[in-house]
Amino acid sequence: MISEHFLQGRRRSQLSDQEKLAIEEMLSPPVTIPRRTTIIRRGEEVSRSTFLISGFMCRYIDDRNGFRQFLSLQTPGDFVDLHGYPLQRLDHEITTLSECRVAYAPHHKITAVLERFPHLGRMLWFATVVDAALHREWIFRLGRLDAAGRVAHFLCETCTRLAAVGCVTDGAFDWPLIQQDLAEATGLTSVHVNRVLRQLRQSGWLDVSGRRIAILDFERLAALGEFSDDYLYLGDTPQTP
Amino acid sequence: MISEHFLQGRRRSQLSDQEKLAIEEMLSPPVTIPRRTTIIRRGEEVSRSTFLISGFMCRYIDDRNGFRQFLSLQTPGDFVDLHGYPLQRLDHEITTLSECRVAYAPHHKITAVLERFPHLGRMLWFATVVDAALHREWIFRLGRLDAAGRVAHFLCETCTRLAAVGCVTDGAFDWPLIQQDLAEATGLTSVHVNRVLRQLRQSGWLDVSGRRIAILDFERLAALGEFSDDYLYLGDTPQTP
DNA sequence: CGCGATATTGATATAGATCAACTAATGTGG
DNA sequence: CCACATTAGTTGATCTATATCAATATCGCG
């Protein structure tokens, strides 16, 4: 099942078998996109949304001088631009960081499905407001944490999200981001990210080798980054209205 | 009409008279809240959402040491915590900055109304994803702009939003925020905000007097803050699906 | 009028940026 | 499979924007 990771670890259990099937039916056959490919540009009108099956993507905004600010890291199971369905025009770019497997949901199909399954509409709405909750935590991270805290917080968040979709083994996960990407996510320079990583490595809290990261001391990283996973809305299953 | 400013300047024209009436009916009678009153705390379960009729509110997250990061400034016509409807538990605090007039929408009433008016559901969804678009721009602002740019961008955004609901005359609007608030919105200290404001005042781009702000040179401020209003989704009225 | 809250200014400290090599990987065509 | 090119990572030296600390001035209100 293509969308098996959608809302996994959140309220997926509230989806009926019929609804899960309906999601599958609104998705096109999966396609593969090479790494570092931009699939949406700011200002673009969109008529379909992208579901990420495997790989990493990110959303970002470029400033006047081409400096880039990441807005989100997208991991398997994310409906990357579901907000494009109500918005119809996007205010940011989207690009692949690794080779990605995706399936598209044409907006007219979403509309058709939601007419038959109104409750599924609330679940999709829920997915977009969780996305906004992540944005809020990013604002906090950039506004109030120092360099080490930002990196730690970002890694804790990513690890927790990846764990929820089964992409973490023994605290380690694939990591296609280069240090420049980390810098663009945390509002730092790549030079400073490099120094922060060294510090975390030397403390024995982290291991970054090649294209993989191992979190060795999650507790300490979480303390450093003032991370708590409540804003991810994992694990709880109150009824979606 | 209590909710006359809801989605004003956006897709309000798509609301039928019946739908506008339905919104009115899901709102409780307006109440007044004194300035600097916290109405929601992080982690709190919510069973109603708050519509802001007049006054200013803000959402924020406190860090471990009580330092505060604003996540948003809420202006008249905002459905401040509509995302609480699908989320059911909030990940941030909400407080009034000035005396505010609000009306509450109990979630069970929203549910009832949406059953009768599915299209209204898409409009509410649209309102929450626009809110997320603002969050994204705040991430950009904090991650990529310097102090003066952040202040300028924030003021341009606020002025544009207030203008859309008719709260700006001759570039001037009420301003209950103290410099400490501006600092908490822009990730700076109040001392530095003070210096940036002086600079903008001396350049003749701005006039801050008492509890009012006048934007004297919007163009230059917008250039300084790399502001463009596209992410506010004003003025266009593509059909909400 | 007087007191607490807010704004302003100056002096000094510092986290992180910038600039500039240099090294280590990774990839590629012959 | 090697030679070379390209990309990514690392380190040191220096600079600068903003924080911090501290004092004073002004505002708004009871």
Summarize the structure.
The structure is a homodimer of 241-residue chains. Chain A is an alpha+beta fold and 241 residues long. Chain A has eight helices and ten strands.
What can you tell me about this protein's structure?
Two copies of one chain form a homodimer. Chain A is globular, with a radius of gyration of 18 Å. In chain A, the strands form three sheets. A four-stranded antiparallel beta sheet of chain A has the order 2-6-4-5. In chain A, strands 1-7-3 form a three-stranded antiparallel beta sheet. Chain A is 40% helix and 20% strand. In chain A, strand 9 and strand 10 form a beta hairpin. By secondary structure, chain A is α+β, with helices and mostly antiparallel strands. In chain A, helix 3 (107-116) packs across helix 4 (118-144), helix 5 (147-164) crosses helix 8 and helix 6 crosses helix 7 (190-202). The relative contact order of chain A is 0.16. At the A-B interface, strand 5, helix 2, helix 3 and helix 4 of A face strand 5, helix 2, helix 3 and helix 4 of B. The first copy, chain A, binds a DNA duplex (30 and 30 nucleotides) through residues 146-147, 178-180, 188-192, 194-195, 197-198, 210.
Question: Which helices and strands, and how do they pair?
Answer:
Two copies of one chain form a homodimer.
Chain A: H1 17-26, E1 31-33, E2 38-40, E3 48-54, E4 57-62, E5 68-74, H2 84-87, E6 93-96, E7 100-106, H3 107-116, H4 118-144, H5 147-164, E8 172-174, H6 179-186, H7 190-202, E9 206-209, E10 212-215, H8 218-224
Antiparallel strand pairs in A: 1-7, 2-6, 3-7, 4-5, 4-6, 8-10, 9-10
Chain A binds a DNA duplex (30 and 30 nucleotides) through residues 146-147, 178-180, 188-192, 194-195, 197-198, 210.
